[in-house]
Write a structure and sequence with these properties.
Layout: H1 3-15, H2 23-28, H3 42-65, H4 71-81, H5 84-94, H6 96-99, H7 104-108, H8 115-133, H9 135-152, H10 161-173, E1 178-185, E2 192-199, E3 202-209, H11 212-224
Antiparallel strand pairs: 1-2, 2-3
Helix pairs in contact: 3-4, 3-8, 3-9, 5-8, 8-9, 10-11
Length: about 240
């Protein structure tokens, strides 16, 4: 057995899917920084497709899991699940970063741990499964990866953004967000605090307020609104 075949077997076991043709899988794991500028960046095309496929898959799974919830609630649940945070966490859990092919520059700057890259590679790999096995196989894999999170996502419904974001982080990737004051502005009678909310070492969002608590709530609210490809304060 070749080293490459051994890697494929290990990765397929982690994903819970066996490819008929691993060509698109390797393309999905090849970051744009490792591709000559004159060549087509297939990984980015797969990421584009995976973004659409995963949006549909999560919508499908949520409809089935929450038959009595309305469109607004389902959209809220989907936004919580279809995010850089959740996809990057799942990529780490599956150890996709071990199989990534990066350019030298991206390798030196810690590309294997960047949430934006990890989330993108998860999307691209799901697109590769879609091409290789079809929609139902992707749905099966995603259900296996996110089944518990889908079952629990309704519990994040709360009026408190800080509590909601903490619940989300704990449910999806088993960590608690940390709040860090980065600035204090204004006179003593009218202080304004600026706070970053971090998941691991990633600054997801920044908020401000007249007190530390208010700034933390604002940061959490902004974190909950982050679109999939936002890099927070690390961009």
């Amino acid at each position: 057995m070749t080293v490459q075949q051994k890697s494929i077997d290990e990765l397929e076991a982690r994903l819970g899917y066996r490819f008929h043709d691993a060509t698109n899988l390797w393309a999905a794991l090849t970051h744009a920084s490792a591709v000559d500028a004159s060549l087509l960046r297939v990984g980015e095309r797969l990421e584009f497709l995976g973004d659409a496929v995963l949006g549909l898959v999560f919508s499908d799974l949520l409809i089935a899991s929450y038959p009595s919830h309305n469109e607004g609630q389902l959209s809220r649940f989907r936004s919580a699940l279809v995010s850089t945070i959740s996809f990057a966490a799942k990529a780490r859990e599956l150890e996709l970063n071990r199989f990534l092919k990066l350019g030298k520059g991206e390798e030196k700057t810690g590309g294997r741990e960047k949430p934006s890259i990890l989330a993108a590679v998860y999307e691209a790999v799901m697109a590769a499964i879609f091409i290789d096995g079809g929609y139902e196989r992707v749905k099966m894999v995603v259900r296996e990866h996110f089944g518990t999170a889908i079952e629990q996502v309704a519990r994040i419904e709360t009026i408190d953004p800080k509590t909601e974001f903490q619940e989300l982080c704990q449910q999806i990737h088993r960590s608690t967000p940390v709040y860090r004051v980065v600035a204090e502005e204004g006179p003593d009678h009218a202080r304004a605090f600026v706070v970053d909310v971090l998941v691991g070492d990633w600054a997801v969002a920044r908020g401000s307020g007249a007190s530390k608590r208010a700034a933390e709530q604002d940061a959490a609210r902004r974190a909950l609104q982050q679109p999939l490809h936002s890099k927070g304060q690390d961009s």
